[in-house]
Amino acid sequence: xxxxxxxxxxxxxxxxxxxPTSNKLISSLSQALVRSRRLLAATSALGTVLTVDDVADVxxxxxxADAAVTFAGFxxxxxxxxxxxxxxxxxxxxxxxxxxxVRARNPGPAAAGEILRTGRPRFDPTRTTYLTxxxxxxxxxxxxxxxxxATLPLIVSGRIIGVLSLGWSTPRPFDEGxxxxxxxxxxxxxxxxxxxxxxxxxxxxxxxxxxxxLPRTLPDLxxxxxxxxxxxxxxxxxxxxxxxxxxxRHDGTLTLVIGDVGGHGxxxxxxxxxxxxxxRAYALEGRSPAAITTQLSAxxxxxxxxxxxxxxxxxxxxSTRRLTWSCAGHPPPLLLTETDARYLDDVHGPMLGVxxxxxxxxxTITLPPASRLLFYSDGLVERRDxxxxxxxxxxxxxxxxxxxxSTGGLDELCDRLxxxxxxxxxREDDLCLLAIRSP
Length: 439
What we know:
The protein is of the alpha+beta class. The protein is built from 11 helices and 15 strands. The chain has helices at residues 2-46, 52-64, 95-102, 112-118, 127-133, 138-144, 176-213, 265-284, 289-303, 388-405, 409-422, and strands at residues 69-77, 83-89, 122-124, 148-156, 159-168, 225-231, 241-248, 254-261, 309-317, 322-328, 334-336, 341-343, 363-366, 372-376, 431-437. A hairpin with a 4-residue loop joins strand 9 and strand 10. Helix 10 runs antiparallel to helix 11 (409-422).
């Protein structure tokens, strides 16, 4: 029994001796698991973002998950190495931060130049080593509450596109496991920033091209007002093929066109340009609205690239207020009078490019004096999980209310509709609005 008791005592002592090592191993494994899960969550979230601001938002949320992190920030570089964008969390309004970290000639972390020059990350377990090299950041560190820092390059294909800066409120040992994690995290962010930057550039090119294709000015006719609005889709959506146009024929008749090409990006904008210029040419030739929609549809079918579009082509004679229009699968124009708001809901044929040989129809009415006519693309009214009927009722009600309340004419009415109907939230599609006040 004594021998047995001695064995138990010996085993207990051995277990106690192993406990610190075991606890250290468990702690290390636990930290590795937490880092792995954070890296997986960040990678997953970054797979759906399209803008640099979205990348920064994911990065800052990842940083915020570490309770000890006091600060996170990016500085991104142009191709020539000059800073192009600075993003930080939290955003501090203290002058010492904005003047040195944001507005300075070389914004971002003081070590950014060093990182850009060497291409190597810098880990400072305490503020002492960092401030020894960059004493001018003492006030910033105090304002933010930074003790330890990590400054890492964002590298894509051997090229440094930016620097990631992280700050902690307490000293940090930066063991090899954490250093490897932070380097991997910076690499993931770098790839996401590169993709987002490319998307933003492409989007900017497409938007610039589309705005260049749309008319810069609208006709100025006696007794008639014409106003237009174009708004691109939100940052998380590609630019579409919405367009509008207004041209005066040789006999003084006004031709109005609004359309929407299916799809997004450069193919949609290219098709939109062809349709817009063709429609204008046919209008100036004197063709009727029905003849124009018929020819536009035939053009798309001839191209054989599966492009589809909707459109309304209309003519308005100012002397008689006679409106003739042809609708090719497009949302109906809204007619506003002093006493009524109603849709001209005749549909004269399918979408352009759908049915070979289809000859579109048209209709003619005489507008009441001083009436308003609204043409628009579906980006103004369509919303997910809301029926189009409900959205058209919303537009009609908002237009009637806006017409009564507006004192600034068509400009104010269009602004009200864009705000009240389209809303300020990120749009899923671009939109056009073309408004006319008849004599």
